[in-house]
Amino acid sequence: MNIERNRGIALISVLWVLTLLTLLATGLSLNSRSQARQSSNITHAAQVRQAAEAGVQLALLMLAQPLDQQTWLADGNPYQVRLDDIEVRVALFNESGRIDLNAAGPELLDGLLATAGVDDDLRARLVDAIMDWRDGDSLRRLNGAEADDYLAAGLDYGPSNTPFRSVGEVLRVLGMTPDIYRRIRHSLTLRNPRNSINPRYAPRQVLLALPGSDELTVDQFIADRRRSHETAQPLPAIDMFPRALLSGGSSGVNYTVHTEARMNTVYRYRLTASLRNRRGRPILEQITQEFIPLFTEPDA
Q: Over the stretch 270-279, which tens digit does the pLDDT of each residue have?
């Protein structure tokens, strides 16, 4: 009787040991899979980041070529490069083609906001509030905003009454929203000190911001401009745009490059880099991670 009972106890002990070993093996297996996934995620994240950085280097290499041999036009139109299974999109901007947040007058600012679908009333308030923010006085424009208006809106700050120090600072302007900012972000700059844009390099949205512009005219101009660049021909006619808001001559030395690297639909990395190009000697001044996508197709 004791022998049978001891055998039963031994059998139960063996079963418990087997159960514990099974649970331990399962835990080790799950942990190994989790570590493998984490390792794979880290590897893929590093790969897309390096691919985005490679896009910046490619833009630097392009600018180092003689002007008549540069196959890319610095108008913000994206170029696509494939690095193994990573897709890299690169957009090069000559800053003379973008709207300067500190220099642009009401017409350009209003036109840009209109391209973002902002209604007339809010546009009027935003334009005046932007100009109130950057001017050197505390006088309120008709639709603008000074310190009392920010206080009344429950904000603990007012306009700086100094030039914008970054494009992102416009988010602090009374009435500006993240959605509006996201729609206009890549058409703004602080490195084109003119109340005008260079039509040779102006992106599509900037051209649409010009008074009297329409999509058909702008798209045709962009196609003609790209063709002229590829065949080393003069800039096509620009008489459809208001002359007072166009600048010509030197294209300046300031450039920005936006890159986005994609690996399937999961891994993405964006960079924005500021460049200065003097006599075919491009220099990388600053590079930061970009969180606002420039490329919206197909699923950004």
A: 999 999 998 8
